[in-house]
Design a protein that fits this description.
By secondary structure, the chain is α/β, with parallel strands linked by helices. 43% of the residues lie in helices and 20% in strands. The structure holds NADP nicotinamide-adenine-dinucleotide phosphate (NAP). InterPro entries: NAD(P)-bd_dom_sf, Saccharopine_DH-like_oxidrdct, Sacchrp_dh_NADP-bd.
Amino acid sequence: MTRDILILGATGFTGQLIARYLVNHPQRASSPFNVTLGGRSRDKLNRVAKSLGLSTDAGSVVVVDLSDYSTVERAVVRAKVVINAVGPYWKFGDFVVRACARHGVHYVDITPEPHFIADIVAKYDFMAFKTNALVIPACGFDSIPPDIAVFVANRYVKAVLGSDTSIEDSTTAYDVEGGFSGGLIHSIMSFVEDPGKTLIKSAADYGLRQPHGPPSRLPRIVYKLPYDVSTSWYGTIWPQRVINRQTVHHSWSLFERSRDAHPADAYGDKFRYDECLRSPGPISALFVGFSICLFVVAILISPIRWVLKRILPQSGIGPASDKGHFEVVNITKAGPLTVKTTVRGEGEFAYYATARMTSEAALAILLQFNELPYRKTGGGGVLTPAAALGDVLIRRLEDFAGVTISSESIKTGETKKTR
Ligand SMILES: NC(=O)c1ccc[n+]([C@@H]2O[C@H](COP(=O)([O-])OP(=O)(O)OC[C@H]3O[C@@H](n4cnc5c(N)ncnc54)[C@H](OP(=O)(O)O)[C@@H]3O)[C@@H](O)[C@H]2O)c1
């Protein structure tokens, strides 16, 4: 039996949210698709399956240990789309991507680890291109909102100023409410335990693939952004800039490769990307910024890391409810234009919103494959949400995941909505 969607890590905190969202998805009534739960413990899998009203037979549950390539390959080869929710990805992700790329199986994940993506681009991009597998990492809150915000801002600019215009300074500011899971904390801690070379390489601008665009500005402790003609916003360091900037740069490189055929998609040679966490004023920005720096320094010290690992939430634990919101605002300049693009949603941002976004990315591939724009960038390969899924994903997020996406010009003070 074919597995329409196989969720790896379905017993984890985020994996269970993804499974619940997919099992209850409204499109299952009109376009029935099956969901298979994958994990390393049969008992846990059976418990999750029962809680979702699924059977516990081989059609709904499969035991997979991601450290054993043969079990991974056996599970993956029968799937159409794999969602990988097992982190840290640099430790556990390689075999899954290898099996998907080898067998032409589509893959999405929620990695926040650019060094993992750099690694799979180097190892499996060509293989996935040959088998036409879509391998799309960072399909969670990291990095769908910023990736599609820049994509939509670029289109707005091109519609107003013409397809040859380059977008210029582009900054995404985050206002979020949610929580942390043990899995994420474990991933953050393990970040600094990864072999340094890969980490340093992927921290560089355009660290994932060629061609390389213009360098980013250095991150700052205090940011000031134009919000409208009379107001400014403040912001500070946003830790997820590490992954999001790489994803947006990755989209830059993919769109640049197809610039001759699709000039309007290319962001252009003046593009500079940055991110910040919104803050009420410059003093609070300074305070929060320094606290974040302090935390980063602390986790670099192994005894402190050892203590934090024991006192912070453990694997499988995360925010108890879907209470929260997110507002991701991108301000992009291009010549005389300043464009504000807003990606907004209700609900906890880091896990519940991630589950909705990742699931919609997988469903875009499963249910709307023939409408996807991925061919514009050359075919299968290790791609980004914006380059591979584009408008199909945007419509799905709006139609099913409670996300609103809009762009407007804020140059003149007279706003003009396009979406
Ligand atoms: N990008 C984003 O926006 C975003 C958002 C949320 C989470 N994440 C990332 O998602 C990942 C998962 O987070 P989480 O909080 O859901 O973690 P979690 O609750 O600890 O779940 C981890 C899952 O991985 C499974 N697993 C671990 N080692 C395995 C192996 N060798 N073989 C098969 N399965 C294995 C675990 O199985 P057991 O149940 O048997 O232990 C569990 O199902 C983390 O890397 C986190 O950084 C990213």
